[in-house]
Amino acid sequence: MPKEGIMHKTTPHQKLKLPLFIVCLFAPLLLAECIKLCAPSAGIILQNLRLPPFFPPGWLLQAMWFILYIIMGYSLYVIITNSILQGRAKNSAFYYFVLQLALNYLWYTAFFAFQYRGFSVLLMALWLSLVIAVWKRVRAINVCMSNLWFFYTAWLFFSAILNYSIWILNL
């Protein structure tokens, strides 16, 4: 006899998981595309800056951020639907996720739309700390999530070095 309050595999909520997965998967990417409207000439801005010699080509940046936004979307879905994190732990994982995503978009706006290079370094440091906070929480969910967030954290650390280098080179 099933215990009261325990969700079983055959719940009516499972029908909603595929639409939720699709929304979660693509929401960060679509929001990023909307934020790009704030600075439609980001490529031209980069061409007019002194860049460090280790600055990656544009196609690689675009590919990496596409992959990272998909990772974020998948992570959002897993954070929302997992049964491992409960209560405050689940809420904090969700809120840290949303905050890091907001800082991601704020960074783009500061760096490209307003061209505040120094402020964007500060935002990047705060953003990186929030990504690490999310990473600590998703490690409890599964190893795959932990590895994906390690990849995101490593890329963001590299991006922070790029951001700082661009700021210093263009003082």
Can you offer a commentary on this structure?
This protein is mainly alpha-helical and 171 residues long. It has six helices and no strands. It has helices spanning 17-35, 42-47, 58-81, 87-113, 117-138, 143-169. Helix 1 packs antiparallel against helix 3, helix 3 (58-81) runs antiparallel to helix 6 and helix 5 (117-138) packs antiparallel against helix 6 (143-169). The longest helix has 27 residues, at 87-113. The chain is elongated. The chain starts with 16 loop residues before the first helix and ends with a helix. Residues 1-15 have low confidence and may be disordered.
Quick overview of this protein structure:
This protein has 171 residues and is mostly helical. It is 73% helix and 0% strand.
Topology at a glance:
Elements: H1 17-35, H2 42-47, H3 58-81, H4 87-113, H5 117-138, H6 143-169
Helix pairs in contact: 1-3, 1-4, 3-4, 3-6, 4-5, 5-6
Roughly what is the average pLDDT, rounded to an integer?
87
Into which percent range does the helicity of residues fall? over 70%
Report how far the terminal alpha carbons are from each other.
70 Å
Instruction: Report the sheet-strand fraction.
Output: under 5%
Largest sheet: none
Structural class: mainly alpha
Question: Radius of gyration in whole Å, from Cα?
Answer: 18 Å
| Number of helical stretches of at least 4 residues | 6
Low-confidence stretches: 1-15
Count of individual beta strands? 0
Element-level helix/strand string: HHHHHH
Write down the overall geometry: elongated
